[in-house]
Automatic annotation (TrEMBL):
Gene (name only): RDH8
Annotated protein name in UniProt: Retinol dehydrogenase
The entry's keywords: Lipid metabolism, Membrane, NADP, Oxidoreductase, Sensory transduction
E.C. number(s) listed in UniProt: 1.1.1.300
Pathway terms, separated by semicolons: Steroid biosynthesis; estrogen biosynthesis
Active site positions: 152 (proton acceptor)
The keyword RNA-binding is annotated on this UniProt entry: no
Known role: Retinol dehydrogenase with a clear preference for NADP. Converts all-trans-retinal to all-trans-retinol. May play a role in the regeneration of visual pigment at high light intensity.
Species assigned in the record: Oryctolagus cuniculus (Rabbit)
Length: 308
């Protein structure tokens, strides 16, 4: 069986992925399902059912701590990880004027350096064995900027640049790299973000910006989660496919509805098209935002919906 280490398994995509892998009918995986706070292991253990203690073990791992990473890897039999899934991540939304540099750094620390830290730890073993697969849960925001997600998108762009660069070298060692890019996923992620936003003042931010954030961005975001959000089960299934693939892709988007939007950057390398269309969808034709995403993929945009 291949040893798969997954970070951030107390909830959401990580929990689902760990369980799906551990319940593989052919028992092809030994899953080390890790989380920062073991007091939160109840939901994972319950979902794992009979796999617990057989094909799934739970271990403590804080991706922001060198000691925690070393300690976790030292407990893995043979210390060998065949598949690493960097899933742990945090969101951050809000006007940049109102966010502290310390808060921004904590997002980069988790989403970017957290993944880098784990990779540094498993890479020597993978290189020695001339085999391995590094999977990273990125986001469509690793491919395109989204209003008021500046820092989160930056952290995922960092991930994309880092792992695309590494992929070239690692091909030489028979190690695959895969970036999985979901759109909105219905997990605790959005709830945690909204809780953080509702209690925050964003000091130093002008009233227009606050209005755009609270009255334009937040409702549009909520509506997008509601209308095109995927389940963590769906995203986990897409990741399992990537792990099973004999020729793993460097990139895999999980939500077909986002493909046309991300393609705008490729179509017009100046970036104007992406920025103008996205601006228009938020400020000028808000009714098109959801319908657009819902229907762009299949080309069924209803004709009665016209820009205002
Ligand atoms: P989630 O909040 O349920 O899961 C994130 C997990 O990461 C949590 O269990 C959290 O405890 C863990 N975590 C945070 N900091 C950690 C640390 N220092 N060490 C170890 N674990 C830590 O949300 P999710 O949606 O399952 O998110 C999983 C991944 O998917 C993240 O990387 C996120 O950026 C990405 N993603 C989420 C969405 C979405 O809309 N939910 C969309 C695209 C990408």
């Amino acid at each position: 069986a291949r040893t798969v280490l997954v970070s951030g398994c107390s909830s959401g995509i990580g929990l689902e992925l760990a369980v799906q892998l551990a319940r593989d009918p052919k028992q092809r995986y030994q899953v080390v399902a890790t989380m920062r706070d073991l007091r939160k292991k109840g939901a994972l253990e319950e979902a794992a059912g009979e796999a617990l203690g057989k094909t799934l073990t739970v271990a403590q791992l804080d991706v922001c701590s060198d000691e925690s990473v070393a300690q976790c890897l030292s407990c893995i039999q043979g210390g060998e990880v065949d598949v690493l899934v960097n899933n742990a991540g945090l969101g951050l939304v809000g006007p940049v004027e109102g966010l502290s540099i310390a808060t921004m750094k904590s997002i980069l620390d988790t989403n970017f350096f957290g993944a880098v830290r784990l990779v540094k730890a498993v890479l020597p073993g993978m290189k020695r064995r001339r085999q391995g697969h590094i999977v990273v849960v990125s986001s469509v925001m690793g491919l395109q900027g989204v209003m008021f997600n500046d820092v989160y998108a930056a952290s995922k762009f960092a991930v994309e640049g880092f792992f695309e660069s590494l992929a070239i070298q690692l091909l030489q060692f028979n190690i695959h790299v895969s970036l999985v890019e979901p759109g909105p996923v219905i997990t605790d992620f959005e709830g945690k973000l909204l809780a953080q936003v509702s209690s925050q003042e964003f000091p130093g931010t002008d009233p227009d910006t606050l209005h755009y954030f609270r009255d334009i961005y937040l409702p549009a975001s909520r509506e997008l989660f509601r209308s095109v959000g995927q389940s963590p089960q769906d995203v986990a299934r897409a990741i399992v496919k990537v792990i099973n693939s004999s020729r793993p892709p460097l990139r895999r988007q999980t939500n077909a509805r986002y493909v046309p939007l991300t393609a705008l950057k490729v179509v017009a390398p100046s970036g104007h098209l992406y920025v103008r269309v996205t601006h228009g969808l938020l400020f000028r034709w808000p009714r098109l935002l959801n319908l657009g995403l819902r229907c762009l993929a299949c080309g069924c945009l209803p004709t009665r919906v016209r820009p205002q």
